[in-house]
Every structure is written in C-alpha cells, then in structure tokens.
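The following block was generated as part of the benchmark described in Methods. Ligand: zinc ion.
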Amino acid sequence: MKVWDISQTLRPGMPLWPGEPPLAIRRLAEIGPQCPVNVGALDAPLHAGTHADAPFHYDSGGATSAECALHPYLGPCLVIDARHARGRIELQDVEWAAIAGVERVLFRTYGQFPADRWDSDFTAIAPEVIAGLRQAGVRLVGTDAPSLDPETSQTMDAHREILAGDMRILEGLVLDDVAAGRYELIALPIRILEADASPVRAILRELPR
Ligand SMILES: Nc1ccccc1C(=O)C[C@H](N)C(=O)O
Ligand SMILES: [Zn+2]
Ligand SMILES: [Zn+2]
C-alpha cells in the first residue's frame, strides 16, 4: 500500500513562526566507553513544523492536545489543489461539489513547500470558506501554510470559524508530492498536558479500492 509522508523534518535551524525561540535537540548521553546509549532531548515550540492546533490555542476554555478526540485526525480525506489561490483561499477557489460527504479537507497552496525559509506571504483561508466547509460536514481542515489566518492577523477569523464549528486544524503539511484527490489521513496529536498544539507525523495512505 502506498504511503505519502506529508510531515516536515523537525530540526535545529528550521523555519519557525516569527519570534519563536529556535528548536534545539540536546545530547544528554552519548555512546562511549562509560555509556551504552545515545539519549537526546527536544526543545521546540509546539507549532514547529507539521502540527495540530488544539482548541485551547484560540479559546482559553478549549480542549488541549491531551484532551482532543482523535477521530478528526484519522480517516478519509480530500486533498484540494489551491495553488491558483492568491493571498487567501476564497469561496470561488473551491470546487464545492467535490466536498460532498468529505469530513477532512487538506489544501495545497505551494508548488514547492519552502522547507528552508520562512514565508510570511503564505496563502491563508477566508473565514467564509471555513463556514462553507463546516456546512458541508467537514470536521478537519489542513493546509501546507503555517496558519489558516494571515501572519499579521489579530482577529484570527478563520480560526474563530473553526471554533464555532468545533472543527480541528492541521498546519505546515508538505503536499509537494501529493496529487489532488482522496486518501486516508493519519495525523495524531501527541497527548501533551496543557498543550495548545502538538507535532504530528502526518501521512496519507491509498484508500482501499
Ligand atoms: N507561534 C505563534 C505566535 C504568535 C502568534 C501565532 C503563532 C502561531 O504559531 C500561529 C499558528 N501556527 C496558528 O495556529 O495559526
Ligand atoms: Zn498552529
Ligand atoms: Zn492555527
């Protein structure tokens, strides 16, 4: 069965949201005459790389990563090619007929994902699109951009629509090698106490035919 890894590699020096402290991997023990193992520690912002926002990120009373139910992150999904969208994915950028019966939608906005630089000019998603997806029965929205809302947003309109519909979010996906269409998504958040987001290992699998 074919599997697509749609995750970024967490690594020191990787592009992060402006102002976030750098990711570090510390070596706590190293194989040598006195030590049989290598052991490391990870220090990373919770929104580094490919991650799932928890509702607590945009709602102080919302569920944390440890509390989130997993079914939104697991099951059939539709990858939508939105490379033509400019600035924001708007209602007319989406082929709504294709969404019917789909619970998970992943948007591809990049021709080539900017793995080695931070892109402040990423393509956001209009709140009207999130509302339309919710009405169509979608439970999870994913994107290859680092956020649903523009980098400078203070109102977080798309996130607010997600909250209104109790939907879930994946950000920072890498969809370079993925054709538009239907797949099985597996992208489970880690159970982290009090976390507003969690890294995920996001993969797509061929749907059984
Ligand atoms: N680290 C931040 C600091 C300040 C404001 C936003 C962020 C984010 O990470 C945004 C994010 N990835 C999001 O969930 O939309
Ligand atoms: Zn995030
Ligand atoms: Zn977000």
